[in-house]
Amino acid sequence: MEQSEIMGNVVKILTPWVKNEDALQSVSMETSILDDLKVNSARLVDVVIAFEDEFDIEIEDEDVDSVNSVGDAVTLISSKLD
Amino acid sequence: MTRKVVITGLGVVAPNASNAVDFEAAIRKGQSGIRHVEAMATSKFGCRVGGVPQGIDALVAAEFPEDELLAMNMSHRYASLASLEAWLDAGLPRPDREDPSVDWDSGAILGTGIGGMDTTGEKVIPLTDAGKVRRLGSTAVEQVMASGISARISGQFALGNQVTTNSSACSTGAEAIAMGLERIRSGRAERMICGGAEAASHYIWAGFDAMRVLNRGSNEEPEKASRPMSASAGGFVPGAGAGVLVLESEESALARGARIYAEIKGQGLNCGGHREGGSMTAPNPDGVRRCIGMALADAGISPDQVDAINGHLTATGADPREIGSWAAALGRGPGELPPITSTKSMVGHTLGAAGAIESVACILMLKGGFVHPSINCEDVHPEIEQHRDSIPHTLREMPEMKTIVKAGFGFGDVNVCLVFEKWEA
Q1: Which residue in chain A is spatially nearest to B65 when comparing CA positions?
Q2: Closest chain B CA to residue A59
Q3: Strands B34-36 vs B49-51: parallel, antiparallel or unpaired
Q4: Domain ranges of chain B
Q5: At the topology level of CATH, where does B266-421 sit?
């Protein structure tokens, strides 16, 4: 799967949890999920469950700790798909 | 410090209407909101009808952001809609989520009888038993914790005063109003969002069906199934929804020029101690009479000043005893009771929301000068026959009505009584 396609799906999954919708307009690989998009940190577990369902992968709890930006999520998902 | 407390906002989600304007129209007409409930039939309930609010998902989708909706089960949805309606109806501003200001003078007491059992039944138990705890995600706790509904509302309005959820079975919604009254009277808050919510769920209703307290005899005629005070009453019909009142100190309401619906003049709260006929499931009649007396005394009115009664009146065998308690508490003989009506005849028994939805009905009746019909009791129960003329089978205009009294009784032998009065400057 192309990175751009993964990113599109990541953004789609994040969208309902995003509190700063302006940041969504200019979202990039560098965009911080918590600081820029203002996703409540408690909701990351819901986001991860949605990643697993969307991409049919399993994400370990320790993997989640390294995810800060949209790019981190895309990279993690890419590595699981390989 | 004792201050006058008034009602400045109303909100309601009921089986027969999803806002206060439609609700007033519905109760004036005697419109039932009871329908066939397929989940009850599938699960082989004896009673297969219930009062389920309609069109709620579309209403909440139009009002609340998606991240909140993902964490809002049915009672959260009902409570949020009714609270938003009441808050805006009171002329109060809806705060922006990014505005850091907190309203330290406003709080919420929003109760529930059962809580988030729909979430427990649909998600927590199946996923936990399947070894998939992780898949519960982050939103399970806030939907099953008892205080979930008041916690939800506090964020929506940036409330900074007391925020809590009370629970006293079927007296919950009215108890919340009594507690809010005291909070404001004592000067500890200026405004309180008070009421109750209960979800529509066959998981919530199953235990009542097993107790055989739900009506099994009207499955083919849902709108006739809730029959308080009738000879053919065969148990209550379960219902769901939310009722919310914005209670406010008179001085705050006057200072901001708010429209005032009514004054909440007094309250009584007690328990019959499971003695003298009282039990987990039945009220001690002495407790009921004392509770009504406490509320009148608190309001500073005499029994002959009561113009109308909105009873608990569920359509079980307890109705005749309740009527007897009203007559005794008010010192009224046969034919002397003021008009006495049951909102449950139209919406069913909404459990923890009942006292709140029915209090909204009281305020609308007081403001509009009418008593709504108590439907489905053309065949008045023989033990109530002597008070037949006090039961309004059709709308009764009462423009001179000044005082209406509401009572509620709950499992655990707990009682609540509220006195609402026309507000005069």
Answers
A1: A16
A2: B134
A3: antiparallel
A4: 5-255, 266-421
A5: Peroxisomal Thiolase; Chain A, domain 1 (3.40.47)
Structural tokens at position B99: 């505005």
In this structure, the number of other CB atoms found within 10 A of the CB of residue A62 comes to 7
Residue B1 has pLDDT above 60, yes or no: no
**What is the reported pLDDT for B177?**
98
- Asked if B67 and A40 come within 8 Å (Cβ–Cβ), the reply is yes
Residue B2's pLDDT is 78
Architecture of the A3-81 domain: Orthogonal Bundle (1.10)
Going by DSSP bridges, is the β-strand pair B403-410/B308-310 parallel, antiparallel, or unpaired? Answer: parallel
ipTM of the complex: 0.88
Amino acid at B310: N
Greatest CA separation for chain A: 33
Cα angle, residue B392 at apex, residues B424 and B27 outer, rounded to 5°: 70
B23: tokens are 């609700």
The half-sphere exposure of B126 on its side-chain side, counting CA atoms within 13 A, is 6
Q: What is the DSSP string of chain A?
A: --HHHHHHHHHHHHGGG-S-HHHHHT--TT-BTTTTT---GGGHHHHHHHHHHHHT----HHHHTT--BHHHHHHHHHHHH-
Model confidence, pTM: 0.96
Active site residue B387: no
Which of B134, B135, B138 lies nearest to residue A43, judging by beta carbons?
B138
Residue type, B268: G
The Cα B35–Cα B222 span in angstroms is 5
Dihedral, B188, B194, B199, B204 alpha carbons, nearest 10: 70
Name every residue in B having a CB less than 8 A away from some CB of A. 65-67, 69-70, 97, 134-135, 137-139
Q: Break chain A into its structural domains and give their ranges.
A: 3-81
Q: For residue range B83-131, what is the model confidence (pLDDT) as tens digits?
A: 999 999 999 999 998 899 999 999 999 999 999 999 999 999 999 999 9
pLDDT digits (tens, 9 = 90+) for B370-406: 999 999 999 999 999 999 999 999 999 999 999 999 9
CB B107 within 8 A of CB B177: no
Classify domain B5-255 at the CATH topology level: Peroxisomal Thiolase; Chain A, domain 1 (3.40.47)
pLDDT, mean of residues B40-63? 98
Q: Compute chain A's Rg from CA coordinates.
A: 11
